[in-house]
Amino acid sequence: MCVYSYRFALYTDPGRVPYSYHPDIEDFSSPIHEIKRNGGDFRNCQKCSHYKPPRTHHCCICNRCVLRMDHHCVWMDNCIGRANYKFFFVFVVYAVIACIYSLCTVDTREDVGNYRRIHVISGLLLVPLILALALFLCWHIYLILRNKTTIEYLEGVIAMVLAEKGGQLYSHPYDIGAYENLIAILGPNIVYWLWPTSTHLDSGISFRTKFDKQMGLSLTTTH
């Protein structure tokens, strides 16, 4: 399953911006629109010469914009984005499990000579690898529970500092609650959360926000 997930994460396109995409300010289904810090215009990519949907970023290595980009993975030579993020996460989960299983099966009691040395060295290498992968896994569990990408986390730190200087509080707009965040990333069926599937994914052009419920409540109150 580890190799299976790795292959999907490696060869799946992370998500391309449709050529026909254009932001619609009159789209009331999207209560917020991402704009540039300077000027207030809609976000557009000068390198790709098109508008960028929410949560989309340009990868200078792949030389293209990626929907809901998390990061560029050098170990996969591929961006991790909307379409392959779950594959990547599931791969990390099974990689941790595989390393722990390998460590538990290392037995040096009956080994002699070079075989004993090989097993000891393997065990010593597995320990830091497990710790590194476990920390990496915990980091992405945190991101999923907050419905953030690695890029959005870094941008959020800057936004939080700027908001505090202005006497305001910053809140990540795409955080719709821990369970809803899990469903958005891993799918609605908990049985398949650790199975490399992507049938639950939407277009990646628009996303639910915490303001959706507020908009619905205000509309209900108005009526």
Structural write-up:
- The protein has helices at residues 2-11, 85-104, 114-146, 150-165, 178-186, 211-222; strands at 44-45, 50-51, 57-59, 64-66, 71-73, 78-80.
- By secondary structure, it is mainly alpha-helical.
- A hairpin with a 4-residue loop joins strand 5 and strand 6.
- Helix 1 (2-11) packs antiparallel against helix 2 (85-104) and helix 2 packs antiparallel against helix 3 (114-146).
- Residues 217-223 have low confidence and may be disordered.
Q: Give the topology string: H per helix, E per strand.
A: HEEEEEEHHHHH
Helix content range: 40-55%
Note the gap between the termini.
51 Å
Number of strands: 6
Rg over CA atoms, rounded to whole Å, is: 21 Å
Instruction: Strand order, main sheet: write it out.
Output: 1-2
Query: What overall form do the CA principal axes indicate?
Result: elongated
Biggest sheet features: 2 strands, antiparallel
| Helix count, DSSP H or I runs of 4 or more residues | 6
pLDDT below 50 for ≥5 consecutive residues: which ranges? Answer: 217-223
Task: Report the average pLDDT across residues.
Answer: 85
Structural class call reads: mainly alpha
Q: What is the compact description of this entry?
A:
With about 220 residues, the chain is mainly alpha-helical. It has helices at about 1-10, 85-105, 115-145, 150-165, 180-185, 210-220; strands at about 45, 50, 55-60, 65, 70-75, 80.
